[in-house]
Amino acid sequence: MALYLLFESASGYALFHAHGIDEIGQSVDAVRSTVLDLKRFSKAVKLAGFTPFLSAVDALNQCNAISEGIMTDELRNFLELNLPKVKEGKKAKFRVGVMEPKVGSHITEATGIPCESNDYVQELLRAVRLHFDQFIDQLKPSDLEKAQLGLGHSYSRAKVKFNVNRVDNMVIQAIFLLDTLDKDVNSFSMRVREWYGWHFPELVKIVNDNYLYAKLAKFVVNKSDLSEKDIPALADLIGDEDKAKEIVEAAKASMGQDLSPVDLINVQQFAQRVMNLSEYRKNLYEYLVTKMNDIAPNLTSLIGEMVGARLISHAGSLSNLAKCPASTLQILGAEKALFRALKTRGNTPKYGLIFHSSFIGRASTKNKGRMARYLANKCSIASRIDCYSDMSSSIFGEKLREQVEERLDFYDKGVAPRKNLDVMKAAIEEGMTNTVSEEDKEKENGDTTAKKSKKKKSKSEADGDAMDLDKPANTAAAEEGTEKKKKKKKHKLEEPQDQEMAANVNGEQDETPKKKKKKNRDAAESVEPKTATEGKKKKKKSKTEADD
């Protein structure tokens, strides 16, 4: 059976016919030693076909398709043109060796061409790659190197850019930096306490917070300079006037030793550095909160920013977290305990990073495992919604949080929770109403802009009319003539109506105001009678009233 080798180079597709190689009885080591010699290899393998790529973009698209295990239309046409044709109902008398098994399986499914990928074929393809520039006469080694370099750069650049969750890397870096900052701030604040404690040891017992202690160390500097005048400033720093007075009294009777001005300056500078680090930590936390609300709003509303960010960083990305089942997500962060339990045949851990959630702490010791399993289930749902949904909203996360609260009440009080199907339906309805309201707001904004544009047009037309006053008198006279004609037509139309109204009014002069109102209504109705009989009846009524 003939063997063909499909080779994907940076410049195009190539097909080789291996006619002088017998696979039977040859080991991989023997083939590896024989294919290094170009003379022997060129006698056994010959070029059957070659098609170059049209451009660098085409080469990148073909490379992406091969890496994903997909056969493109160009590759299919190339194989059908260069391989021997197979009659219908008969098996092929050849096979194609491919480097990637996924591509080979896709080729056999789509075209029926038998493909294989084993150690023997891979060694032959390695030899083809080694001697590829010798088989094609018009291809220079320098051109092949340039094509490989350009395709490698473009492929790696595209892989770096191709990220479904574009900014989850920022969350991973931010949570790692927050952890390191917490450790650094704690160690530096302890160093400030020890350093400044030689000068003012009583301050440690009065102020427990590290940030406030660094602020006071920078403000006080020398304890002997403190007096009652500094109490308002100390009260503004601490927020408590009693503590400010206590600090001043402790400074007067302090047991600490005096420090030189140079030492005090160094302590003050170090306290300023600690303050800057703690302030930067606060800003970084705010940044992490905003990023988590943008990337994973449902997971954030369900379990919180810090725990959600730790889950994403531990999984590697939001897509990896979405692919994890709930059982894996439940014990993320407790891998050592899990493998230790499997090794010693002990009890496996019930929770990992999820333990830091407030729901696990609120559950009783009896129900902590159940609560962790239920919370992991809801976290996996929220992460999948955040990863694969186009609409970014926290409606589903809020509903899932309500479900977890109901489950806590069920464990504690026995109150039956709602069904998951009903909760999800309510969430979908709320999402639809929110989208409709947003569209209505957009329409209203569009209407207001249209009204503003109309107002601007009316103003411009008014300005144009004002400018038209300086036109010649002939046009003005012509316009006056047309207006007079219109007035005459209106006057002719209104004359019969006015005559009838006058006839009715002359017969109603001596009546009371109430009767006048009624007669006016009758007169308005009698202006245009529907039939002749109705007009005669109304005339008779008017005559009788006039005789009275």
TrEMBL record:
<dbReference type="GO" id="GO:0030515">
    <property type="term" value="F:snoRNA binding"/>
</dbReference>
<dbReference type="GO" id="GO:0031428">
    <property type="term" value="C:box C/D methylation guide snoRNP complex"/>
</dbReference>
<protein>
    <recommendedName>
        <fullName>Nucleolar protein 56</fullName>
    </recommendedName>
</protein>
<feature type="domain" description="Nop">
    <location>
        <begin position="295"/>
        <end position="413"/>
    </location>
</feature>
<dbReference type="InterPro" id="IPR012976">
    <property type="entry name" value="NOSIC"/>
</dbReference>
<keyword id="KW-0690">Ribosome biogenesis</keyword>
<dbReference type="GO" id="GO:0042254">
    <property type="term" value="P:ribosome biogenesis"/>
</dbReference>
<feature type="region of interest" description="Disordered">
    <location>
        <begin position="432"/>
        <end position="548"/>
    </location>
</feature>
<dbReference type="InterPro" id="IPR036070">
    <property type="entry name" value="Nop_dom_sf"/>
</dbReference>
<keyword id="KW-0539">Nucleus</keyword>
<dbReference type="GO" id="GO:0032040">
    <property type="term" value="C:small-subunit processome"/>
</dbReference>
<feature type="compositionally biased region" description="Basic and acidic residues">
    <location>
        <begin position="438"/>
        <end position="450"/>
    </location>
</feature>
<dbReference type="Pfam" id="PF01798">
    <property type="entry name" value="Nop"/>
</dbReference>
<dbReference type="InterPro" id="IPR042239">
    <property type="entry name" value="Nop_C"/>
</dbReference>
<dbReference type="InterPro" id="IPR045056">
    <property type="entry name" value="Nop56/Nop58"/>
</dbReference>
<comment type="similarity">
    <text>Belongs to the NOP5/NOP56 family.</text>
</comment>
<dbReference type="Pfam" id="PF08156">
    <property type="entry name" value="NOP5NT"/>
</dbReference>
<feature type="compositionally biased region" description="Basic and acidic residues">
    <location>
        <begin position="521"/>
        <end position="535"/>
    </location>
</feature>
<dbReference type="InterPro" id="IPR002687">
    <property type="entry name" value="Nop_dom"/>
</dbReference>
<dbReference type="InterPro" id="IPR012974">
    <property type="entry name" value="NOP58/56_N"/>
</dbReference>
